[in-house]
Design a protein that fits this description.
The complex is a heterodimer of chains A (about 525) and B (about 325). Chain A is of the alpha/beta class and about 525 residues long. Chain A has 17 helices and 22 strands. In chain A, β11 and β12 form a beta hairpin. In chain A, α14 packs parallel to α15. Chain A starts with 11 loop residues before the first strand and ends with a helix. With about 325 residues, chain B is mostly helical. Chain B has one domain: ABC transporter involved in vitamin B12 uptake, BtuC (Orthogonal Bundle), CATH 1.10.3470. In chain B, about 75% of the residues lie in helices and about 0% in strands. A two-stranded antiparallel sheet of chain B has the order 1-2. In chain B, α4 packs antiparallel against α13. Chain B is globular. Chain B starts with a helix and ends in an 8-residue tail after the last helix. At the A-B interface, α11 of A face α9 and α10 of B.
């Protein structure tokens, strides 16, 4: 394969790729992208824009209906499976679920390639460890090859996954001098901001001998790290920018991605805040050993407190403690004047008026259920035939769901549509919709808009702000600093499990802008 | 007058129903197949009455456990409740007279509750737990009976024929079936049981007491099995058996899975189980009428269970609770 090729030919070129699902849904329409040696190519778009489909075609998960693939200027067939793709020098690091937690690092790195390390039908563990150690050293990934994957921080796990992708290309091609093309599918989605920066520094360092296709919907990241960027919308390529030559603003990219300008919510926060005097929840010296220590705050009616900090700072554990998913060791938690026991089960929290809304896909949704049932599950008390007879009225259930679907602009044929078939953004809207209907006194938000597109985000912020206005208190944990300035009245900075500073939104914007 | 809008609605509803209950197609297919193969033996009132009789047996055994399967667990204790209940009726007959039969629902209720509590507290696989319990009940039954089947004739009136060719047990099973469907579809408890099977963490976050409703699911299962066994006792001969008939254990399982309740839980339930039971009864009868050796029929039943489990778990996507 490493014959003389024209120097100007790109490393990889996909030309005019189209893909249709079930003969109806046009996922990709005549998309062309090129990848050059040692560059980071951004592919951006909303959920459902066709990014993932394109990547899956590149690694042989889907076969395209139409299109051509060129490798160093020579036409090659599309790969039929990921192994063949690796043979062509292409490998992917998926957004989630790529890591097998209970494998040791070296086992994980060589997973699927064990056949190359067998002697007399037993695995050559020492050789495997050496190979694993070498690649990690070469890529400057700092971790012990014998530790288990789950023991590593998320960003290191990502790096090990990238190392695994590069290694699998080398092992499949049986050489070490090809330039690997690594597809990064939303690599920063599970990471906190500080970790993101670190991951990108590592990736930039790896550009010396690799090329990356960087799939994302986080505009600032793409603008900062990609050399060139393709924008997809509804399966079509709608924009292309060479970021090394032209100046492109976030607003430009945003407009290209959503096909309209950003609304006031995303870039002009600062709505009227209506924080009451009444205290809804008090944490005093709340401590969970080895996670967080001495967390104290008052949450007022109509107030939103943001717990801000890097992953591993303890912010997630704090919000999960309040949700009842994690216990605490010391301190006290008081909800509306009543003390909450440390080991109280989560279902009792709802009786106390605490709802928990997580953006993690499928965490709280009943995916095989229709929308209507997902909304009524926390509101069954409101759809009974009469107060006395505990019989569910299907028409009341449907009406309730229809109201929410309309209000939140959920794109679905009917309220009887199963949630599995909805887009990520619509799923999230169903989740938030049930809480809108229930209107709990305190709503806990954990990454409420993670992984969903800009339009759906705005709709969700709108609902949350409306709930807040009508008196709901909220606690937010997120990785997106903008989210804090949009939603929060108070931001508590947490580091190493301890409260560092309490900031107003204005102060927070100054800190994060710097 | 013809309404053009209505014209489109009917096929849509039909397609939707077939989509969510694909077993209906299999049922129709089998009926057509057997009718074509041996019309003079299959298409007789006697044959249909036999099919209905087996349908009743399968349904009354499978109805309760299908509630448990919705939560993602399994309850195999049904045959045990029927066996032990029968021998308790025989033992109590001289003392409590005609009220003795009430011991079966009571036994079912208590058994279900106990299984639920043990399963939730000890967090052990319900399959092993209920299988052990089945064997235990079988042992108790054999011990109490002294090793002989004990017949109790007093309850034969329950299933005495009312309408020719229509088994009375079938009439009795209708209200029980409706009650099970009602509980699962129209009450809070049923909804919460579906929620737990669909997404346990999500159920907890939605304020559902998961442990309590798991226990409730097992208790309901035991209760429905117990009530059903009151009919099954005279229906299956009016005697407390001492031999564990594996057919009675496997058949209801086939009915549940064939009906479209996936073993991972979250969807399906009693309304599907009755379809599965009817299909299985038709298949079983059709095979018995064929020239196949009875052992070969067992083989095919085993294969049917495997196929329906595979289809049930693969076809999970797009299957709605109906």
């Amino acid at each position: 394969m490493s014959m003389a090729t024209p120097a100007e030919a790109p490393l990889l070129e996909v030309r005019g790729v189209s893909k249709t699902f079930d003969g109806v849904v046009r996922a990709l329409d005549e998309v062309t992208i090129t990848v050059h040696q040692n560059e980071i190519v951004g592919v951006v778009g909303e959920n459902g824009a066709g990014k993932s489909t394109l990547m899956k075609i590149l690694v042989g998960v889907y076969a395209p209906d139409k299109g051509e693939l060129y490798y160093r200027g020579r036409r090659v067939p599309f790969p039929r499976d990921p192994k063949e793709a690796a043979g062509r020098g292409i490998s992917i690091v998926y957004q989630e679920k790529g890591v097998i937690p209970h494998l040791q690092v070296y086992q994980f790195l060589l997973l699927g390639h064990e056949d190359k390390y067998v002697k007399f039908s037993s695995l050559q563990i020492d050789t495997m460890k050496r190979v694993a150690g070498e690649i990690l050293e070469e890529l400057r990934v700092d971790c012990d090859i014998e530790s288990f994957m789950y023991e590593l921080p998320l960003s290191t796990q990502k790096m090990v996954e990238i190392a695994k992708a590069i290694l699998s290309i080398r092992l499949e091609r049986e050489d070490t001098d090809t330039t690997p093309i690594i597809i990064l599918d939303e690599p920063t989605a599970p990471l906190a901001i500080e970790e993101r920066q670190g991951l990108f520094n590592d990736i930039l360092a790896m550009k010396r001998n690799s090329s990356f296709i960087f799939v994302s919907h986080i505009i600032p990241e793409v603008r900062e790290f990609a050399d060139r960027v393709y924008v997809l919308r509804d399966g079509k390529q709608v924009a292309y920018h060479d970021l090394t030559r032209e100046k492109v603003t976030e607003e430009d990219l945003f407009r290209a991605i959503v096909g309209r300008g950003s609304s006031e919510y995303l870039y002009k926060p600062g709505l009227e805040k209506a924080v009451g005097e009444e205290i809804a929840l008090t944490a005093s010296n709340l401590t969970k050993n080895s996670y967080y220590y001495d967390i104290s705050f008052h949450l007022h009616r109509g107030e939103c407190i943001g717990l801000f900090g890097p992953a591993g700072s303890g912010k997630s554990e704090i919000i999960r403690t309040i949700a009842g998913l994690v216990g605490f060791d010391k301190g006290s938690l008081t909800v509306k004047g009543q003390t909450v026991k440390a080991d109280e089960l989560p279902h009792l929290r709802l009786e106390r008026g605490i709802g928990y809304f997580s953006g993690e896909t499928g965490k709280e949704l009943f995916l095989n259920w229709p929308i209507a049932k997902n909304i009524s599950i926390v509101n069954i008390g409101r759809i009974l035939l009469t107060g006395r007879v505990p019989v569910i009225s299907f028409s009341a259930e449907r009406k309730m769901a229809e109201r929410i679907v309309k209000k939140l602009r959920i794109a679905a044929p009917s309220v009887n549509t199963d949630c599995t078939s909805l887009s990520g953004g619509s799923k999230q809207k169903v989740s938030v919709g049930k809480w809108l209907e229930r209107s709990p006194d305190i709503l806990l938000l954990e990454d409420p808009t993670i992984g969903i597109d800009v339009g759906a985000r705005e709709d969700i912020y709108e609902v949350l702000l409306e709930m807040k206005k009508s008196g709901a208190s909220m606690i937010l944990v997120s990785d997106d600093p903008k989210e804090y300035s949009i939603l929060c009245d108070t931001i508590i900075f947490i580091k190493g499990g301890r409260m560092q500073r309490v900031l107003s939104p204005a102060e927070f914007r100054e800190v994060t802008a710097a | 007058m013809k309404n053009p809008a209505r014209k489109n609605v009917v096929p849509q509803v039909l397609i939707q129903t077939l989509k969510t209950h694909p077993v209906i197609l299999a049922l129709i297919g089998f009926v057509v197949l057997f009718s074509a193969l041996y019309p003079e033996r299959f298409l007789t009132p006697l044959n249909f009455s036999t099919i209905l009789k087996q349908f009743v047996t399968l349904t009354l055994f499978a109805l309760g456990p299908s509630i448990v399967v919705v939560t993602g667990s399994l309850d195999l204790s049904y045959v045990g409740i029927w066996m032990l209940g029968g021998i308790l009726v025989w033992l109590l007959m001289p003392i409590t007279g005609m009220f003795s039969i009430l011991v079966i629902p009571l036994l079912g209720l208590v058994t279900g509750f106990l299984i639920g509590v043990i399963q939730v507290k000890a967090k052990i696989p319900s399959f092993i737990l209920t299988l052990s319990l089945l064997v235990t009940y079988w042992g108790i039954t054999a011990t109490l009976s002294g090793g002989y089947p004990r017949s109790v004739r007093e309850y034969a009136f329950i299933t005495a024929s009312l309408i020719p060719h229509l088994p009375t047990a079938f009439l009795w099973s209708i209200p029980i079936i409706l009650a099970a469907i009602f509980v699962m579809k129209r009450t809070r408890i049923g909804t919460y049981i579906y929620a737990i099977g669909s997404n346990e963490e999500g159920a907890q976050l939605a304020g559902i007491n998961v442990d309590k409703h798991k226990i409730l699911a097992f208790t309901l299962s035991g209760l429905f099995t117990g009530v059903g066994a009151v009919i099954l006792f005279p229906h299956l001969g009016g005697a407390a058996p001492v031999e564990l008939n594996l057919n009675n254990v496997v058949g209801p399982l086939v009915a549940i899975v064939l009906g479209g309740t996936p073993l991972v839980g979250g969807s399906g339930g009693p309304q599907r189980t009755i379809l599965g039971a009817l299909t299985y009864a038709v298949v079983y009868r059709g095979l018995l009428l064929s020239l196949l050796h009875p052992e070969a029929v067992q083989l095919l039943v085993g294969l049917l269970l495997i196929v329906s489990i595979v289809v049930g778990s693969r076809g999970l996507k797009g299957v709605t609770i109906t």
